[in-house]
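Escalation from tier 1.

The customer reports that the assembly of four entities below gives different structure tokens on two consecutive runs. Tier 1 could not reproduce it. I'm attaching the input and our single run for tier 2 to review.
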Amino acid sequence: MTESAQSLGIAMVGHAFMGAVHSHAWRNVHRFFDVPLTPRMVVLGGRDEQRAKEAADRFGWAAVETDWRELVRRDDVDLVDICTPGDTHAEIAIAALEAGKHVLCEKPLANTVAEAERMAEAAARAEARGVRSMVAFNYRRVPALSLARQLVAEGRLGELRHVRAVYLQDWLSDATAPMTWRLRKEQAGSGALGDIGAHIVDAAQFVTGEHITGVSGFVETFVPHRRGADGADEDVTVDDCAVFTGRLSSGAVATFEATRYALGRKNAMRIEVNGSRGSLAFDFESMNELWFYDGDEPGETAGFHRIVATEPQHPYVGAWWPPGHGLGYEHTFTHEIADLLRAIGEGTSPQPGFADGLRVQRVLAAVERSAAEGARWTQVDDMK
Amino acid sequence: MTESAQSLGIAMVGHAFMGAVHSHAWRNVHRFFDVPLTPRMVVLGGRDEQRAKEAADRFGWAAVETDWRELVRRDDVDLVDICTPGDTHAEIAIAALEAGKHVLCEKPLANTVAEAERMAEAAARAEARGVRSMVAFNYRRVPALSLARQLVAEGRLGELRHVRAVYLQDWLSDATAPMTWRLRKEQAGSGALGDIGAHIVDAAQFVTGEHITGVSGFVETFVPHRRGADGADEDVTVDDCAVFTGRLSSGAVATFEATRYALGRKNAMRIEVNGSRGSLAFDFESMNELWFYDGDEPGETAGFHRIVATEPQHPYVGAWWPPGHGLGYEHTFTHEIADLLRAIGEGTSPQPGFADGLRVQRVLAAVERSAAEGARWTQVDDMK
Amino acid sequence: MTESAQSLGIAMVGHAFMGAVHSHAWRNVHRFFDVPLTPRMVVLGGRDEQRAKEAADRFGWAAVETDWRELVRRDDVDLVDICTPGDTHAEIAIAALEAGKHVLCEKPLANTVAEAERMAEAAARAEARGVRSMVAFNYRRVPALSLARQLVAEGRLGELRHVRAVYLQDWLSDATAPMTWRLRKEQAGSGALGDIGAHIVDAAQFVTGEHITGVSGFVETFVPHRRGADGADEDVTVDDCAVFTGRLSSGAVATFEATRYALGRKNAMRIEVNGSRGSLAFDFESMNELWFYDGDEPGETAGFHRIVATEPQHPYVGAWWPPGHGLGYEHTFTHEIADLLRAIGEGTSPQPGFADGLRVQRVLAAVERSAAEGARWTQVDDMK
Amino acid sequence: MTESAQSLGIAMVGHAFMGAVHSHAWRNVHRFFDVPLTPRMVVLGGRDEQRAKEAADRFGWAAVETDWRELVRRDDVDLVDICTPGDTHAEIAIAALEAGKHVLCEKPLANTVAEAERMAEAAARAEARGVRSMVAFNYRRVPALSLARQLVAEGRLGELRHVRAVYLQDWLSDATAPMTWRLRKEQAGSGALGDIGAHIVDAAQFVTGEHITGVSGFVETFVPHRRGADGADEDVTVDDCAVFTGRLSSGAVATFEATRYALGRKNAMRIEVNGSRGSLAFDFESMNELWFYDGDEPGETAGFHRIVATEPQHPYVGAWWPPGHGLGYEHTFTHEIADLLRAIGEGTSPQPGFADGLRVQRVLAAVERSAAEGARWTQVDDMK
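Tier 1 run:
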């Protein structure tokens, strides 16, 4: 933050888990990063006024709006941050972009490819007018994963052969855990596939710098009914897990698994990449570490390096603490918003944009079509 | 070994890597385990007499035979141990069984399902006459994996939801590594799939006590030609890696990957199983450890237990050293042969038998068919 | 934060590393914790007005003072947070307490036992008037270490036999690294011993609930001169490392090491405790994990549990994110300040108090005396 | 083993744990290593003839002797391997050496410095006559630790600053575990100090290539009485644990701990060394791994390498299995005996010799004297 930094009026829609963590980032980003624009936390959107007010008070927003359409129209708002369930993303994001507001949208970008396409088109039109948009794949901003991307881009892995990515959680392992909106297709779009599978699909594409071109897989719902808040059983209409194989544009071979039933794995977002010159491995449960195998080293001392990614030369870390003083989950959002503010300030396109979000959506749709057709190999580009 | 132990005449065919490790087990098994039969290392089979003699001298075999047919017929031979490439297994094993010799056969059981079926039929006929047969899936005898099987059998994992198994090596990562028989389809049958994929297919079925009922996947050959001993390029006619999803008989969801291109992973045979009550994880690179998550524990102290599987109450360990004094790779063969000798002595069927080997073969064939048909879902029982 | 929360005016002295992290905690604590008092960031103290203003602007303080005496006197200040080098702690803290301000003081409490005693006496006098004081041993508020304390207090470890604690850094490994105030005895008091040794001494006493009664050890300065900012060599007048053995009040045997020369160890603050019923191990480089061995478990499945201390029932964690979404270094300060605000609001004594800081100081002094007298066993209570 | 290899007649005294593992090495060494002398397992010494015969039968010794004096005199014996408790080492070893037999002696070399000195003198006299002697610090032959020594010798660690070594076991944690000879001073000499402390003292000296010049420490006996086989309580007359600090000849700072009360640690023989250019860490519970930090690497990718020490270029490994196929505890003895046979065959001095054993003994004696004198700093060279 510098004396001359201009401010940017922020509106946020939604105030559950994602709202809490985004608020934290908006509140603190300029305390650590030299961003060209200082965020003003102008208004929080929520349908229930009382609950929205409580959240605004706690999170530090100056006002509330119960109608997102009002919020999008406000003159004191320059950017809309969308933290609502996926079925609402398209409508809000497109309206905001058309109103000339920059947009940060939580992932997955949308619940369908069709929605995602409309959003990407709206983003492209807005981009031409200098209005920016970003989809919140926050794991790209884990310093260790950002470092992984750098090493691949520098050619340290050589020709890529393998990606294996899993996202393992266990909060549904207990068959008596209650029904939530995340298990209803009409709101969540899909289950583990869209919620956490989206993250590893994006991570695989981000770290490798490639596209997933085809997939084959299937999904499963282990517990078909759950008890709702009203005490009645309700059908679970989304997948509990998804497993699929895939190909990257270079021909590399990939495997993916997203599940909420890996008992004991709390948030194990893992990715390993093997190339002809080196390999990388990451596990979010140890988020400050990146493992790197340098195939150019003599065999006597070769071995996976446990890089504690907390050195000043590691991405984003210089803004924080001395080496070995690890970062946490919410830092990834602060980094994301720092990059977004810089892009807006500099007039460049923030990454990942809605086109990236659409590409993830197409991969997810390809998995669903493959699953519906006996795991048949499915091209991602054919996806609508 | 007891005073009254009878002896068993052993013949072994093949004296490369597997021959060395089997010899070690035959030489030492009765020094640690109270087996009802003491092995006599009677004869070693090898086509080149000079090389066979050198191997026999080194490994401790009393004589050599250059023709396996002679070896199988010898009166002083009670058991034939087959350590040759897969294309020779069927002929030798069937001849040995028909000659009334017990058989231990290296994995994969055969190069085709048809051969494996004939072997399983011969084994069943021999069994009726008290002649025993076993296929050498040695990883079942890693104490930690054997303990894993026990915990599943005791119900400690509850209803099984997930299996994820990989076998990662890197000895072909270097595109200039030379041609070997393991890369020729006519000798090896397949590449990573049959060589190391067979191990994780068996391990998944062993640990869960279930069958793989269907699969979908594909294979890849990254380096299509390699330089042979004669200096000329030769086509690689087997897969370099195989990736596939699958289902177990209980409905559990499984993923598999076998590769020789995971740079930095030397022999990472890994399996994780998640159930409704518990989870297990194993990595052969830390072969003396089993990780167990007990879902019945209170959340405050729940976590994956790092079980150092070197306690007297762990399988096979009581025969060896005090706690914390780890075992190595070759112990798995000593355990296997101890169990085989006990089964022969007690007149029971050793595990895994040729029927188990056939079942693995059918899974591998299903993967190959699926791969040939666009990753289409393929039932294992349809395999011929 | 509730509507009815009263506010508390905060002044902070010092704005380097500790100032940055304390500011972050003051700015955010009430966003996550239901504290009875909301902090107002009133004034930042710093000798150089320009630099203080820049820091205040970045960190979010409303005003600056260049004379800490003025700051301590201000009516709008209720609490003074001391983040300056150790040689200034006593004077500022005592003045603040006498002015009726609550005090939070960075560790080590002071540079000498005599200063620490005067501070503890001042704190005791203030306490009688309802004025609270706390020393900032932030590692107590790592959720995993706080959980460790709980498990010991619940008797899960039984009778304690061993403590082994190390604090390993490497920022002085490079003999050409420049001179800093931390290497001058008159400012820093001591080197690794007081800076990081203090943390493990406090952690050992905190986790066990015991006192260190005697020690034997020595210190070393590996690099006796370093280049200063003016280009001239300057003597290093503090220790580079300290190693010592010790006894706890229960008779348990302890070992300690603090060093800035453990190349590759960035911030490895580690402690392991072994008891007759259980054991615990922690390493700050993996700060979200606690390892717990439960000796009451049957040997078959016993093993160190890797507790990922991010569950709602773990200390402090409920205020943050879902399981598996790890916390970082600065959270420990937020927790510390939340506890301090609660204690002030509830009229109780915050922990650790200045008496705890004094006790740590006495242990450090005993180590220095032992070091000066040929590692002779030295009683802690004799220390002045 | 080559056709032309001559044989060496071996006698072994003692047939408990160490006898079992030494027998295994004698039986197998020439099957894997090209040693110039093939061992003949001539005779096993044991006081109880029946038990000795059973052990000889199981372990593969051709005959037994109940009087070690007879055994030492036999013409068909070229080497005496001493696996008895420490109080008998000196008498047997000196008699054997004087009879012109090579000697392999288990550690610790003796129960007192005086005995060890007499043994070292006898060894020096025998050496002049071409009679060799070795003390069995088997951990030197863990491939990972042998590699550690190589890296230090190559200067990869630079100037050494720190050694921290612990040997943690837990078999006495249970206060009701029964009395054994290992807890009687007259037989065992000392407790954890001599039994396992000896190993880490030797390892520290071996890996660094330096001597421990001074120590300060203390010992403790947590459980003073234990129930004997006869049902009566008996005094424990040795230490349960020992902790000490020390100096190496280069000035490096060291810490040591040996205990049998570290609940959950089964055989955690650990050593870490930090230098100005690099660091090394090893834990026997993961015996096939060496961790190496290369300070010359750029900070971006620097990190401890997890070297899986199973590559052909790693010490001893070429004789065994392919990469990633780990070795176990007993391999260290096979390596030791391979080196001993080579030294005898080549007419060189095997390492470590009795002089090395004596040096370890002096360190242990210095620890005991320091413990007796209030942890006072004690020079190792003054020890008698």
